[in-house]
Structure formats: C-alpha cells, structure tokens
Design a protein that fits this description.
By secondary structure, the chain is an alpha/beta fold. It is built from six helices and 17 strands. The structure holds flavin-adenine dinucleotide (FAD).
C-alpha cells in the first residue's frame, strides 16, 4: 500500500493514560505527534473503573474522567488521533510502522505505551459465558448481580477494587485467591470492613459452570491438597493480572516476560523507541507512574527529534 505523507515525528502506540500523557506532552514540546489506539475506548485498563485510587490530587475521578481530560487536551495541543491498532513495527534504517489497515507511517521516534491485556483464566466455560455472567468490569456489570452472589478471581489491587464495587450491591462476594492478598494495605482494610465479602484461599478456578441462562457457579480446586468444590454464583470476575501487549514488536526489544527493557531515559534496545507504563519491564503498577513515565518518554523522544 502507498505510504502516507509523513505527518508525524513521534508515534505513540496506545491510548491508555501513559500514551495520552506522552502524546500530549510531546505535542506541547512542539513535535508532530500521532497516537494509535487499537480499541474503541481510550483510557486502557482503567477506562471502566468507576473511581480510581492513588491520585495525588484531591477529589474522586473515574478512569474515563481522566482519559477524556487527557484526550481533549491532547487534541487541542494538535495530537493526531488515529483509531487504529499498530500491527507491526519495523526498525530498519528508517522506522516503518504499519497499522491494522495496512497503512504505513515513518516516524522519527516511537513511544510504546500499549500496556497490557487482562489475563484469561483459560478454563472451560470462560469464553462461553462472557456477557452471560463472566465480566471484567464491576462498574459496568455489577448491577446485573444485584442481590446475587459473585466470585472475583485474584488478589491484587484490581481484583480487590472490583470486589469492593460488587460488594455494594451483590448479596455476597467471594474472592478466590491462589496466594495471600497482594493488594495495598488500604484496600485490605476496606475488605475487612465488608461483612458480605469472604475468601477462598489457596485455590483456583478450574471451570465456570452454567446453563442456557448463564453462569450458575464455579468449580474451585485447592492448589495444595487438590480437593475440588463447587461454589454457586451468578457472576464471575477474573482479575489475575495483565499480559504485556507487545506481539507487534521485534523480539529484540523484549524481556523473557514480553515487557520492554528500557534504560533510565526510557529508551529501549533501539534508541529511537521508548516505552512507558504497563508495557515496560520494571513499571511499578500505578497510573500516576504510568502518566509520569509518559511525560519522561515524551521528553526523551523530543530530544531525538528536531523541531
Ligand atoms: C481492574 C483494574 C483497576 C485498576 N485500578 C487502578 C487504580 O485505581 N489506580 C491505579 O493507580 N492503578 C490502577 N490499575 C492499574 C492501571 O490500570 C495501570 O497501571 C495503567 O492502566 C497502565 O496504563 P498504560 O497506559 O500503561 O496501559 P493500559 O491501561 O494497558 O493502556 C494501553 C492501551 O494501549 C492500547 N493498545 C494495546 N496494543 C495496541 C496496539 N497494538 N496498537 C494500538 N493500541 C494498542 C490498548 O487498547 C490500551 O488502550 C488498575 C488495573 C486494573 C486491571
């Protein structure tokens, strides 16, 4: 396909909070910036979170509030928003970025902020019952389980946060955890204060059960003694972490876990490619850090590209 006229000096891949912050900042530094977002929604993993935690400013904000604010500001600053996933990145003498429509672009620098996708449980019933009891968004779907029982799988910040949302309306929320909670102290305290939230420890889901109407329960396997029980429930919310979205990148940029290795200036093994947020090896996990890394990557990429 014919290459498009080079409209961008810096390409930002991913419209989560790291990518939006990076694109906006690079444009403010006077660079021509294009941002590629592959899903229908900006904001990444927090796009559907009703109230995000850990911001350093007072007030309550949803993930959408933050994303929309950054998106509007990025647009005003002149960032070109391209609603398209990046399919491949070729790092020859000239960078060639190909999007999912087969269009090619030749930026001088690239900021990869493609974050991660929630890991699947990989058990029978998971795929079959998506939208009929299996969900990844308590804020969006919690209302369907009002007065019913729901199971949350996982013990990190995201899992606990979603369990707390469900506990407001569900009759009972049961968290199935393979190991002790890894969530922040403040979350653990909030969980302890909810009488309708309980735990099944040292256990994992081995199947999601259901019928024509939807989910009816889960099969739970104790990881130490192998015993299996069935727990009735109407909803299942898996939050067992995120796998990096890096399948479109050359492997020499990646660590064994699939994340991007960077130096102190957020440059990868190719000095024209930078990484920020959840996609980066060593990322701490909070969205404040994701946005700060977006700014840092923008500074580094701007230094590389002329006005
Ligand atoms: C349920 C849940 C709740 C959370 N709540 C909080 C919280 O309250 N506070 C907090 O600090 N942290 C929270 N986190 C962690 C937070 O979500 C992450 O730290 C943050 O989202 C990382 O941002 P990011 O921009 O790096 O990546 P992501 O949010 O993963 O965004 C990446 C974006 O890149 C896009 N993308 C991927 N591949 C491509 C491609 N090939 N081409 C184009 N676009 C692509 C994706 O569609 C996505 O929009 C939560 C996480 C979860 C799962």
């Amino acid at each position: 396909m014919r290459p498009l006229k080079n409209m961008c000096q810096i390409a930002v891949i991913g419209g989560g909070l790291a990518g939006l912050a990076a694109a906006r900042h690079a444009a403010r530094l006077g660079r021509l910036v294009s941002l590629f977002e592959g899903s229908a929604m900006y904001g990444g993993l927090v796009a559907t979170v009703g109230e995000v935690e850990g911001l350093t400013v007072p007030g309550k904000f949803s993930g959408q509030d933050l994303a929309m604010h950054l998106l509007e500001d990025a647009r005003k600053t002149g960032v070109q928003m391209l609603d398209s996933a990046v399919a491949s990145l070729d790092l020859g003498a000239r960078i060639t970025l190909t999007d999912e429509q087969g269009r090619t672009h030749h930026p001088e620098a690239v900021i990869v902020a493609s974050g991660g996708a929630l890991r699947k449980l990989g058990v029978p019933g998971e795929q079959e019952f998506v939208g009929r009891g299996v969900s990844h968004c308590a804020t969006c779907d919690g209302g369907f389980f009002r007065g019913m029982d729901a199971v949350v799988v996982g013990g990190g910040d995201g899992a606990v946060q979603e369990a707390l949302v469900l506990a407001r309306t569900s009759r009972r929320v049961i968290m199935v955890c393979r190991s002790p909670l890894k969530a922040k102290r403040e979350y653990v305290d909030k969980v302890a204060a909810r009488e309708n939230l309980s735990f099944i420890w040292d256990s994992e889901i081995s199947a999601i059960l259901g019928d024509q109407q939807g989910v009816t329960g889960v099969r739970v396997r104790h990881v130490k003694d192998g015993s299996v029980t069935e727990v009735p429930c109407a909803g299942v919310f898996p939050f067992i972490g995120a796998a990096p979205s890096t399948g479109f990148l050359p492997v020499f940029l990646l660590s064994a876990s699939g994340h991007i290795h960077t130096d102190a200036g957020l440059a990868s093994a190719d000095p024209r490619v930078f990484a920020a947020g959840g996609v980066r090896a060593g990322y701490g996990g909070s969205l404040v850090q994701a946005m700060a890394e977006g700014l840092g990557a923008a500074e580094s990429a701007a230094r590389l590209t002329a006005h």
